[in-house]
Amino acid sequence: MQVYDWSRFVLRVPIKASREKIYKAWTSQQGLESWFLRKAEFTKADGQTRKDTDSVQIADKYEWLWHGWPDDVVERGVILQENGSDLLKFTFGKAGNVTVTVKQEEGEHILELLQDEIPTDEKSQVTYHMGCTKGWLFYMTNLKSILEGGIDLRNRNMQLTDVLNS
């Protein structure tokens, strides 16, 4: 039996949308807020805040706020790679790094998410590996839903806690 690798996971979903639309949904404040976050603010290397429609660049810093969580729960990180087309990589706090790639297979676009460099102690296995897998499964499904049909599945009611969609 092969030993499970708790330091990484890969999730993939086909999305019936152009590569450009899928990629843009990940690379701007406006894009991320349309399917993922309550607020996604990016700061350039010179300290200026990017406009909500600007595409992120390597070395940009970000601050993200989640639906269903108070403002003191903030995710901070840095954009490590982007190619303006189909690849984005960013730090994801103590949970490692996330690489998003838009691929084409069998005539369809596949969104692939790799989260790696996850710590492998028992607490990290539960909090980051299992917790992030659960979160990304929902948010990638929500992105597919929005790009293919327009239905946003996120919980926006701060009074509802411990639910799958926030």
**What structural category characterises the helix and strand content?**
alpha+beta
What order do the helices and strands follow? EHHEEEEEEH
CATH class: Alpha Beta
Q: CATH topology, anyone?
A: Alpha-D-Glucose-1,6-Bisphosphate, Chain A, domain 4
By CATH, the architecture is named 2-Layer Sandwich
Biggest sheet strand order reads 1-7-6-5-4-3-2
Brief synopsis:
The protein is an alpha+beta fold and 166 residues long. The protein contains three helices and seven strands; from the N terminus they run βααββββββα.
Question: What can you tell me about this protein's structure?
Answer:
With 166 residues, this protein is α+β, with helices and mostly antiparallel strands. It has one domain: START domain (Alpha-D-Glucose-1,6-Bisphosphate, Chain A, domain 4, 2-Layer Sandwich), CATH 3.30.530. It contains three helices and seven strands. It has a seven-stranded antiparallel beta sheet. A hairpin with a 2-residue loop joins strand 6 and strand 7. It is globular and about 45 Å long.
